[in-house]
Amino acid sequence: MSTYEARLAALREQLKADRLDGFVVPLTDEHMSEYVGSYAQRLAWLTGFQGSAGSAVVLPEEAAIFTDGRYTLQVRDQVDGKHWSYQSVPETSVADWLKDHAPDGGRIGYDPWLHTKEWVKKARAALADKGVELVAVGRNPIDQIWEGQPEPSKARLVVHSEELAGKSSAAKRQEMADWLKNQKADSAVLSALDSIAWTFNVRGQDVDHTPVALSFALVHDDGTADLFVASEKLGDDVRQHLGNGVRIHERGDFEPHLKSMKGKTVVADPERAVAAIFEALEEAGARILQKRDPAVLPKAVKNEAEIAGHRAAQARDGAAMVRFLHWLSVEAPKPVLSDAAGGAEGRGVDELTAAARLLDFRKAGGDLRDISFDTISGAGPNGAIVHYRVTEETNRPLEMNTLYLIDSGGQYPDGTTDITRTVAIGEPTAEMRDRFTRVLKGNIALDMARFPQGTRGTQLDALARQFLWAAGLDYAHGTGHGVGAYLAVHEGPQRISPAGSSQPGGDEPLRAGMILSNEPGYYKTGEYGIRIENLVLVTEIDIPGAERPMLGFETLTFAPIDRTLIDTALLTDVERGWIDDYHGQVLRIVGPLVEGETLAWLEKVCRPL
C-alpha cells in the first residue's frame, strides 16, 4: 500500500469485512489532542493531508475530506481530488455530508476513542431520518490495514520543577479536590495530555513539539490521584516526585478502572473526554457531571513563576530570531550561482535552508528542547498557504522582489514561544506594502486595546481586521490562540476569533495571566502571504477614573518588524509611536544578547521611523 489510492481501496475492503458502509476518520487521538503521536496519524496515512485539523469520510463509492479556511490551499496540494472531494468547515460538517451521501439504512462506523460524546449525539441525530446507523467499532479499521503503524512512544517522563511550575502538584490537586467537594463529586477525569502534564508537574516526549506523555488520570476529592501511564516510562525520580498521593497504573487499565466506578459521581469534560470514557462510566453506573476539566482554567491563567519564565524564554528566542533575520538579510539577496555549463550550482537560500538555519540559531541560544510546531517557511506563493509545511517537493528559493513568511517557535523549560515575521526579499511592491501596513495596524490596534473584565476574544477580533476590511480584505483564520507554559503552543480555553468560528474558545472571558497570540494576516493566493505575530499577556490596567476593572495586553515577543514593508503614510502618530517604542524595547531586551555585526544590524533596523 505504497500509494494513497491503494490505502483507500484497502480501507474499503476492510469496511466490507466489518459490514460497514462507511467510516469517519478524524485527526486526533484518545485525548482529543490537536497534535498527535505518529501512531495516531491515521488521516495523514490515509489521505496525505499534513495539516493539524481535519477529518475524512470514506463510503463505498466516494470519499470526502473536511478542512477549515486555514487549509483551503494545502488540502488541494496534498490530497488527490480524483479520489476525494474537498469540503469546507463550517459551511458543512461530517454529519451534514453523511446525511446527503450515506446510503439509506447504511452502517457508518466511528472509533469512540476518537470522537466526543456530543459529536456522536449530533451525528446520530442527523442520520436518524435516513435510517443510517452510527456504529462504534471495537478496533479502528485503519489500524487493521496500516502495515508498519508506529508504536506509541516509550519515552520517559521528566519532572517539571516547582521553581518553573510555580506551584506543587500536591497543591494543584488539593485545589481540584476542594472544587470537587463544592460540586459534590468524588473524582474528575483528566484525559487532555497537557492537563495531566500541568497537574502532576511532569513533561514528556510522546508527541512531536508538545512536551506531554500519553496518559490518563483521575483526581479525587481527597487530593489523591490515579495516574494511568506505561510503567516503563517512569523512572525512580518521577515516582519519588509523584509521591504516595498518586497511585500508578498501566495506561491500558484506564477503561476497566472507569467501569468499576459504580455509585461514584465523576466529572468528565464533554469537550476533552472522548465518547468511550462516557460510555465506560455509564456502563459502571456512575453519575456523570459534564463540566470542564478542572485543570483547564488554572493552566491558562499563568502564575508569576510561569510569567517570569515566559519572559526569559521570549528574550532568548528573540535573540535567535534577530540572528536569523540578520543572516537572512545578508544571504537571501545573494544571486544564485551557475556552473560553467549554465546549470544552477546553488539555489541560494530556500525554504528548507532558512528553516534549518533558524533552528540552528535557536539551538545555539541555549536549552531548546524542541520546536513548538513544524516551522512554516513560505516563500512567495507558498506564504499564502496559511499552515504551509515545506517538503522537498514544495521547497522554493527565496527570490528577489518577493515576500517570505516564517512562523515558528521553540519549547524551552521556562516557556513556549510562537512568532511570525514577514520579510521583503528585495524591493516590495506598493500593494505588498499597503497590505503589510494594514496587517501591522491591526496588530497594533489589538495590542493597545483596553477592555473591561469579562470581555471575550470574539469582542476584540474585529480590532485586528478593521483596516483590512476597510479595503475589502480579510483573512480566514482566528486572530489569536492561547499558549501554554512549556506545554501546548495552542492552548485553550481562550482565543481571539470571530463569533461563530469553527475554532472554540472565542467566548471565554479573558483573564489577567492568560497568554495569547496576536497574529492578523493577509494572503493573496498564488502570490504572497503576510502575517505579523507576537505573543501577549493579559494584564490588569489602571485607568484613572475607570468605573470598572480594566484589562489590556503586555507584549512578550521581541524581534524587529520589517520597516521596508511599512507604508508610513498609512500610519497615525500613535501607531508610529507604538512602532518606535516597540523597536526600542527590542533593542533594550534583545540587544544585550547579540553582538558584533548582528547588533549593528539590529540597531539599524530598530531606529525610529
From TrEMBL:
Per the record's keyword annotation, is Hydrolase included, yes or no? yes
Pfam families in alphabetical order: Creatinase_N, Creatinase_N_2, Peptidase_M24, Peptidase_M24_C
Ranges where the Peptidase M24 domain occurs: 310-540
What Gene Ontology terms describe what this protein does at the molecular function level? metal ion binding; metalloaminopeptidase activity
**Creatinase N-terminal domain boundaries:** 7-137
- Write the record's keywords in alphabetical order, separated by commas: Aminopeptidase, Hydrolase, Manganese, Metal-binding, Protease
Do you know which SUPFAM superfamilies this protein is assigned to?
Creatinase/aminopeptidase, Creatinase/prolidase N-terminal domain
Q: Which family does it belong to?
A: Belongs to the peptidase M24B family.
What is the name listed in the Swiss-Prot or TrEMBL entry for this protein? X-Pro aminopeptidase
Which species? Allosphingosinicella humi
